[in-house]
Protein 1
Amino acid sequence: MQQKMQYITILGSTGSIGVSTLDVIARHPDRYRVYALTAQNRVEELAAQCVQFQPSIAVVGNAESAQKLQLILRQQGLKTQVEHGAAALCAVASAAECDCVMAAIVGAAGLAPTLAAARAGKKVLLANKEALVMSGPLLMDAVASSGATLMPIDSEHNAIFQCIPAAYHDQHQRTPSQHGIEKILLTASGGPFLHRDINTLDKVTCAEAIAHPKWVMGRKISVDSATMMNKGLEVIEAHWLFGVPASQIEVVIHPQSVVHSMVSYVDGSVLAQLGNPDMRTPIAHAMAYPERIASGVASIDLVKIAQLTFEAPDLVRFPCLKLAYDALQAGGSAPAIMNAANEIAVQAFLDGRIGFRVIDQLIARVMAALPSGPVTDIESVFEQDQRARDVANSFI
Ligand code: NAD
Ligand code: MG
């Protein structure tokens, strides 16, 4: 069957997810073209991507980077239009020329363009979990009212998507029990400190924290995996994506990272999605759904893997996981406040300004200091996000 060409915008194309997305696109020139690429800085890498994929537009963080990029692209004889700033990100995410948007900016900076893509009715490939954590009801409402399609890229949520009946995804008002869904089993590798002596956690270095045993990822999400705040953010993400309450989302530690998550049904069946830990699998799945395309990832060799193990998470070792459940329970802007405090704490840790153990303490203090407010519009979300950042900074 002849495919209609899909034009894709990649928000955050120089990041770990952005690069994996371009790898999948390059394998299918008959199906996909790049409409726009965006990056905050790393201009040379973005320029090399532009040479290879020839987008119509490239967006960078500021005027200086734009000038630099413009110069390289003209030297290469490229016609790619260069823009900069937050408004340009929203413009390429919602442009009529683009069909599909990979939302792969890290952190709160991705919220406005992700929401713009959802409001414009695009196929939104969501990697930027922080956007959904901050504004769950707003983003889900935007998707429902514009007729956009939201596809999870996070490996766990993509796995859950694959283990849930297709009819469930088509409904706006979803009730898990109507489909026999008992609970979601969200797997977690446990990160680099799963078995480290708990008394030494206050002394771990940045290099140790970002050395994830199974996944190669950006620095922020790598630290989130070490604290397990990443899993906490994913519990909230699962709640919004699949309409399942916190009480029916269970985290299971699975150090091999082969089972990417599971769905448990009332008849005793548990469906799982397995694969190598390589983000090109969920990216290819989400891009081609409901079809399947090659992603460059080899299938797993179960005999070689030999053992799959599971254990319960230790909330004393990983207090961030509990904080996320608390935020989801509190509702309103509590998840946005928690996310903002986490972003500030992780950056302070990466900069060597605070120790590893201070990350969870700082988030807890900010959450205790700021009451949850309503999430009615994007402006109020950003207001509460900024307030939480200010309070977090005042505690450092
Ligand atoms: P990364 O740090 O490797 O890349 C981030 C990208 O965002 C870069 O292109 C960067 O230029 C851009 N960016 C950063 N700050 C920006 C700003 N203020 N404005 C505009 N652009 C900005 O991160 P990553 O690992 O690719 O993760 C991206 C998102 O995907 C995160 O939300 C992460 O939680 C999520 N995610 C990542 C993985 C993974 O395997 N890496 C898996 C699941 C989910
Ligand atoms: Mg994940």
Protein 2
Amino acid sequence: MPTVAVVGAQWGDEGKGKIIDLLAEKVDMVARFSGGSNAGHTVVNPQGEFKLHLVPSGVFHPGVTCVIGNGVVIDPAVLIGEIDGLRGRGVAIDRFFISDRAHLIMPYHLLLDRLEEESRGKGAIGTTRRGIGPAYMDKVGRIGIRAGDLLERDTFRERLSQALEQKNRIITGLYKAEPVKLDQIYDEYCRYGELLAPFITATELMVAEALEQNKKVLLEGAQGTLLDIDFGTYPFVTSTTTMAGGACGGLGLGPLKFDRVAGVFKAYCTRVGSGPMPTELLDETGELIREHANERGATTGRPRRCGWFDGVVGRYSARVNGFSSFILTRLDILSIMPSIKVCTAYKLDGETVVDPPYSASALERCEPVYEELPGWNSDITGARRFDDLPEKARSYVKRLEELLGCPAGIISVGERREQTVVVRELF
Ligand code: IMP
């Protein structure tokens, strides 16, 4: 029975929410392995439209076990709000589990995210200000607080007081801001602990058991490969491993357990926040895509930067993740374009390059080299099989297959579940 990782292949917001929701129908477990409430997955299904930040999109399918792995950083207030919101709309949360090893976002992480961003001035990363960077810093700095700590109050108080000693020195000394208070945070988080206790467990054992029993497991990524802490456009990245390999460390899963790795690409590119994006369109075509596709961040509401499909970073993303196939989303958006450009190489300081340069500043200097393909100019939202797509849309997909070096598995032609063309089954 397959174990399949589904990860973002660009700068996040590729439409993974819909895809996970769709695939979840066929699986026994959906396990999320990285990121935090910086992610925003929009799911439209018969129960309505939902914006999820932490709970895996598999939650809408009764019988599917949803896991938040140890690689995720959890803001308990956001998670509890999300659980309450889902329950309020009739979604059962009865097969949902949180790793006791998952680190928590604390109030001082939210504060420090803001203070750090403000102090960066022009070099600001444009974070979602959800405390992600500071929480992962504490994880690797070994002063983080984990979900399991909420169940051991004495340990929790001791670790919190150690952390606050350091945090308040930084908050008051470096940033001249008001210190945060131990008792207030302790009481607030003990309350969260009571509410979350039924969900907190050793999820790595649940994942191992599911694999042993030959269950179908979907490993859900967050953000995208170009925001990966190692292979993204550093320093304009998030603070965790967004690539498929992150599922090993983020869930406690051996690398030999993967059967397939699927990368989710939007049919064009978008990015929120700062950092290089070679195919960004700062003209009316970019504006047209943004308005037509309503490209605004699901978490922050910020307008997304829009541009043509970038085959250079796409191929790179396919390589560092080892994609066995790709999932193409929002192909219907391009139906309004008379012709469509695809970036196949860059011009960098007078040279043609086919791999992205290592530094963000060099990537900023890259000029895209485009190939122009004819548009299909017709409504494709009713397509259900590859052959239903107009020939020019099929040629576009085939060109992307060549550029990415792997086959298309699923093509999304609208936001609803059924608006999907399955070329190759993943499960
Ligand atoms: P952080 O993850 O909030 O620290 O933000 C770091 C960078 O990642 C910023 O450029 C954010 O805009 C970007 N980012 C974080 N999460 C997402 C996401 O879910 N979609 C798109 N961009 C994201």
